[in-house]
Design goal:
about 230 residues, mainly alpha, Urease accessory protein UreF, 11 helices, globular
Length: about 230
Amino acid sequence: MSLPAASLLHLLQLASPSLPVGAYSYSQGLEAAIENGLVKTEASAREWIVDMLHEVMARFEAPLLWRLLQAFAARDAAAVSHWTAIFIASRESAEFRAETIQMGYSLGKLVGELKICDATLLSMLEAQADIPFPTALAAASVALAVPAEAALLGMLFSWAENQVLVCVKSVPLGQVSGQRLLLSLHTELEAAAQTAQMLADDELSNWAPGLSLFSMQHEVQYSRLYRS
């Protein structure tokens, strides 16, 4: 995938850990898995991340982002509202819902303050009663002319990087171990991006009851560093 310099720089900014949306404060159930002893080594961390990548991200969250990217690019307000509602309805715990709404609100506010969207894109974004993170990310990516394939891969890499950082801090793993783990995920991320683009609407699924239970346990976990 060859990107013009401007598009590449925009993508790097959207995928950066310094993007002020609070992604670093969430573990998406991983902290509960660490607390329960399921993730305790580099190997088990990789197994967890790969399973979540292929069973949840590639089969639901990434395909939803893909559809939102197409909808914003086509200026299809009905499709944006439809997939936004589907994504919010799919959040199976209070923490997961609060996470995506908080991050989406923060990115949506940033998009407005940076004035990167045209009037049509901005009105489509602001028309949502609640803005989940994929909706705000799709609007920002289209506004900045980041190709959909690149935006999708950037989102997946950003998610994986955050998961690795949780493991570095909480397992704990060393910095070298974390970078080795992240490097080993590159082919998995490419495969997940391909899957996300090929799934039909009736093939989408975020069925992961174990993850849902860990998220619910995390809501009442005695000691924790992360908000999900």
